[in-house]
Design goal:
Strand order of the largest sheet: 1-3-2
Helix content: 55-70%
Radius of gyration: 25 Å
Number of helices: 6
Number of strands: 3
Distance between the termini: 88 Å
Shape: extended
Strand content: 5-15%
Structural class: alpha+beta
């Protein structure tokens, strides 16, 4: 029976599963996004989120705790130097899983897991939409008319 067994074993023994998740977490931290199966992406998301939360506080104890999960100096340094400062105000939800379709070989459902604040394409597309003007002018006369009326209105207020 599997009563209260709440996480996906991914068809592996515990040592293999821990090593695989640690390696995938290091790759995610170093590359900011990786492509994998949906089941592994969801398991990795549960594995990485608490580690990223621990990295918000840059102390020796938190570094050692994170290193005990990742076992990679470069990944720990990257996490504390670049990722932690960007997510310090975010209360959680540091990663997102995007479904990308099915793998050609075995039909397995694939996904892209990435850090939310490091997706340059999404951040770039969100910025121009906010800065874009909402009014359109069809002729030059329409554009010049409000400019000519504004000084006249200011003169009337001055009197």
């Amino acid at each position: 029976m599997r009563h209260n067994k709440s996480f996906n074993h991914l068809g592996r023994q515990s040592g293999h599963r821990k090593a695989m998740l640690a390696n995938m977490a290091c790759s995610l931290i170093q590359h900011k996004r990786i492509q994998t199966t949906v089941a592994k992406a969801k398991a990795l998301q549960q594995y990485v989120e608490p580690i990223v939360t621990k990295s918000k506080e840059d102390t020796t104890a938190s570094r050692r705790c994170v290193f005990s999960y990742l076992k990679n100096k470069e990944a720990v340094a990257e996490l504390f130097r670049t990722i932690a400062p960007k997510i310090e105000n975010r209360p959680g939800g540091y990663t997102r899983v995007l479904h990308t379709g099915f793998r050609q070989g075995d039909g397995s459902e694939m996904a892209l897991i990435e850090f939310v604040d490091f997706n340059e394409a999404a951040l770039a597309s969100a910025a121009p939409k906010a800065a874009k003007k909402t009014t359109r002018r069809s002729t030059k006369k329409a554009a010049e008319a409000p400019a000519a009326e504004a000084p006249a209105a200011e003169e009337a207020k001055a009197e």
